[in-house]
Amino acid sequence: SSGINAEYGDRLVGHVIGSEGSLPPIYTLIEIQYHLMRRLLGVRTEGKSKGAKVDNLSKNEVLLVNIGSLSAGGRVSAIRETKNKHGAVDKRAKVILTSAVCTDVGEKIAISRKINKHWRLIGWGTIKGGQKMAI
Question: In 3-state terms, what secondary structure has residue 135?
C-alpha cells in the first residue's frame, strides 16, 4: 500500500519530489515560444464543416497550460512577434501562472483556451525562460 488515499491521488498528478538541489527551478511566470493551430479540432462553426479559426493570443487572456502531466492556469501578460532572418515569425508570450511549476527551459507545453465552456487545445510551445521563485 502506498499510504495515499485514492481520493487524494489526483492532487499529486504532475507534481515532482526530489532531494534538495536535484530538481529544476520553480517558475511563477514562464516565457514561451508558441505555435497556434489554424483551426479548432472537434468544434464546428454554424453551417461549416471546417472547424473554427483559432484567434491569436491576447493580453490578459486566461489559458490552461499543460507542462508534462501538470495542468496550470495562467494569464497572458505580454505578447511579442518578431521575424527572423529567414522570414519566419517567432511568436512569444509571457504567462503568469496561477500556481508555481517546477520545470526546465526547453520543456514542451500544450496551450488550451476556454471555448463554449470547455477547454480546447489551440496550440503548443516551448518554455524559453521565466521568473523563478525564490526558495
Answer: coil
